[in-house]
Amino acid sequence: MTTVIMRTTARIVVPIVLIVAISLLIEGHNLPGGGFIAGVLTSTAFVIVYIAFGLDFLERGVLGRDVDPGKTPSRDRVVVAYRRLFTVGLAIAVVSGLVPLALDHPFLSQSYIVLEGVPLYHHLEIASALAFDLGVYCVVVGGLLTIISVVGAE
Amino acid sequence: MPPELSVVLAVVTAPFAVAGVTPLLIRSLGEKTGYAGAAVAAFCFALLGTQYGSEGTVELAWIPSLEVALRFYVDGWALLFALLASGIGALVFLYSPAYMHGESGLARYYAALLAFMGSIIGIALAADLIAIFLFWELTSLCSFVLIGFHTDDASSQYAARMAMLVTVGGGLFVLVGFLLLAFVAGDIVGPGTSAFDLAAMLDRPDEMQTALREAGLFVPVLGLLAVGAATKSAQVPLHFWLPNAMAAPTPVSAFLHSATMVKVGVYFVGRVRPLFASLEWVVLFATLGLATMTICALLAVAATDIKELLAYSTASHLGLMIAGFGFTSILGAETGVFHLFNHALFKAALFLIAGIIAHETGTRRLDELGGLRHDLPVTAFLTAIVALSMGGIPPFSGFYSKELLFEATVEASHHHDLGPLDWLYPAVAVFGSIFTVLYSLRFLALFFGRQPDSLDHVHRPPVILLVSPAVLAALTAVVSIDPELAVRAIVQAGVDATAVDPGAHEMHVGLPTSYSPAVGMSAVAIGSGVLAYPFYDSIHRSIRSIPRAVPPIGANWWYDAITERLTDDGAWLASRVHNGLLRTYATWTLTATCVLALAGFVATDAAVPPVGFDPASLTGLDVPIAAALVLSLAVVAGLAVVTADSHVAGILTLSILGFMIAIFYILASAPDLALTQLVVETLVLVIFLLVVEEIPEYYEVSLGRVARDAALSVLVGATAFITVLLTTDARPAGESAIARYYTEHAVPEGGGQNIVNVILVDFRSFDTLGELVVIAVAAISILTLIVMRSRGDESSVAIEDAEGGSANESHESHETRGESE
């Protein structure tokens, strides 16, 4: 499926998809969205890259590394980064749950603060749940991409 | 005097704490770690000593919401058992370094031994049913690790598995018994007291028994607890694991399989005795105990290995204790408590002596040993004391407790109407005792007679190996000379705690001065034993020939038959359920899910149409045109999937269905759900397209398989349909309380206008965390399955490499073959 049409479309679509995904993550607390949806959408962007440019493109084209072409999933593919991502995500989620414990609140209790007079936004709410949502996002992206890249390499 | 909570907690936790740091101790102390263990055990013993004479309950909250607490009850019986465990533990730790010299895996050995000691002290002191169960199973686990100490030895693994299966299985019976007991006790112990509080139940034994009988649970609970105690204490017909457990190193056998763990069942029977004392109790436990005592004494005479002889003898003596507790008279309690005490001392010493013999001669076979008194004079002297005590020869300690059993059997008919059992109990007790005398003399004979030529040079044991058996033999000698001393020190307190009627009763033991039925029984037993000893070899051979002629008479045969059958059936079932074909997995999973869901509906009567269901109300269904359009498009797409002539067309039409559902969500004003559905649908579509390239274009599918798939599809569809109908119907009219709560609290407490997201990351974030773990685990398992698939079996990798690119094709064609089978 690595046709010119596919590649050109991917070049335009992927950045848009990524930006939408990130906005879904950040706005998720007040508008439709959230860590899970943003995570799945980000994974979709990566999958489009995979389909349009092949499995090795991220390694060779973006990161400039040298890899053996072939079907066997090797340990030095991007998989390592994905794997790290979902570990980090799980850690963020757990730590964000443990912080309230240190402040003498139950595990995973959340709070928020409202900032006034912020440039562009004027009125901005920062919820502690965003940290947890970021953990959700990382786990979903890391987990799905690990599965997809490993299965896709088969 | 009430006990001290801090002291009790320290005694129970210290062994576990040191078990945790054993690897570090091994690194710094090496083989001398055993002495550190001895110090821990001595520390526990000393701390327990400070509680001597105290009685009462102390507790520490553990799971307050379930009323489960780390509750400890200290009285004479608990202290007796805990002191025995820690005291013999100290001697076994002292003995271990010399015995285990040069062995590998010492960290595991000492850690398991320490953890075991902690659990056994825990059982002795715990008064909460859940805590007792926990410690009960912990002892089984430690025993498993210790029996299987020689991990590369197949017989050792077999023995460890057997012990695990029997004792942990018995533990499950105990758990059910405990739950039933707690169920009944809830009303008796009253509010404010936990239903798991055994001490509170023991305070009201009569009310408990009446309540159990009214609930019809008396016999079931008694039976369940009896099965648990019988597995743990190796009672017939569940005794077979104990001789096999002798695969463990000898100090383990001395500690776990003679002095403490196997006595847990006896200890517990003594503990709950006041609750259950009745005719059923007598018939069950006296029969069980006396049968075990006799059968295992016979088997001990048939043994060919010194540890096997001691193992069967242990089971036989455990039977004696169970029988003692089985009689509800005060004599029964005296028998059980005093014999438990005596047996722990002399049998642990005998095992340690057996260890010395095996260590110095290199063999444990009875017919290869003899005349050892020349080479091992000190050991011979110690053996004489403890072996004669085991045989119940006056004036050695075992005689007194066995005399008590004889008296209890004779007096049993005074308390209950037993029918023919009235004279059968004393007769069986005497018959079993004859064999006890026989095998005790046989063990002692190892040191006398002619030394076989094969034993050319026997080493003198190092002094450190002799210390522990010498201490135990000395204690046995003290009890033999002045049994009243032991009674005053600890046994009387144990008897008071296990007696059925709490009235004070002074216990007296001593050499008989006048004739009584019990004296006559002792004389018959010892006299017949001594007279029959010259014919030991022929008795030995004739008992051995019975199981050889009729294999099913042995319990071991049944164990082997059952486990083999289970293994075979398991393999057969596995080949049906997971045979490597994806469609088989899908069939089982989907069928099971549907059947369970439907069974759930039926069980809760949800499947019955609600009363007042009016078909006419269907005509008034108010469906917006847009929704109807979208849903009918989805139905058309669903039909198109089935008739699609290629995989790609099928997948694309399937995704139409998915997108239509997303649009339906938008129409139903659920934007978050719609967004998720859209994104997931897209991702799934892409993954499908990736995978579809690997699937063969066309393959043959048999008619039967098509029928099965069709039936399955209909079942899944019907289940989904019924579920939707029932769940939407069951929804309360209007806004439910929980929905209102979320709507009202989302903004002020969660700080977000998107309620779905606030629920996910705030109100119910613990659920979300669980789901995250699921995703991570799924990713890890796929990674492991695929990336490491080739690592385990190096040869298959080589073949795959040799075949190069064709490996994948051959794999596919194999699967295709599998499909068409």
UniProtKB/TrEMBL annotation, chain A:
Compartments, as annotated in UniProt: Cell membrane
Domain Na+/H+ antiporter MnhB subunit-related protein: 5-146
Species for this entry: Natrialba aegyptia DSM 13077
Keyword Transferase in annotation: no
Stated name of the protein: Na+/H+ antiporter MnhB subunit-related protein
TM ranges: 12-29, 35-55, 85-103, 134-153
Primary location group: membrane
Membrane topology according to the record: Multi-pass membrane protein
UniProt entry tagged with the keyword Flavoprotein: no
One Gene Ontology CC term in the entry: plasma membrane
Taxonomic classification: Archaea, Methanobacteriati, Methanobacteriota, Stenosarchaea group, Halobacteria
Keywords: Cell membrane, Membrane, Transmembrane, Transmembrane helix
TrEMBL record, chain B:
Domain NADH-Ubiquinone oxidoreductase (complex I) chain 5 N-terminal: 63-110
A Pfam match: Proton_antipo_M
Region (Disordered): 797-821
Stated name of the protein: NADH/Ubiquinone/plastoquinone
Residue ranges of domain NADH:quinone oxidoreductase/Mrp antiporter transmembrane in the record: 126-414
Parts of the chain that traverse the membrane: 6-26, 33-52, 72-95, 107-127, 133-151, 163-185, 211-231, 281-302, 309-331, 337-358, 378-396, 423-449, 461-481, 515-536, 585-603, 623-642, 649-668, 674-695, 707-726, 769-788
GO CC annotations on file: plasma membrane
Domain MrpA C-terminal/MbhD: 633-696
Record bears the keyword Transport: yes
Keywords: Antiport, Cell membrane, Ion transport, Membrane, Transmembrane, Transmembrane helix, Transport, Ubiquinone
GO biological process, one term: monoatomic ion transport
Major localization listed first in the record, in broad terms: membrane
Membrane topology: Multi-pass membrane protein
Location(s) in or outside the cell: Cell membrane
Keyword flag Cell membrane: yes
Gene Ontology molecular function: antiporter activity
Every MrpA C-terminal/MbhE domain range: 705-798
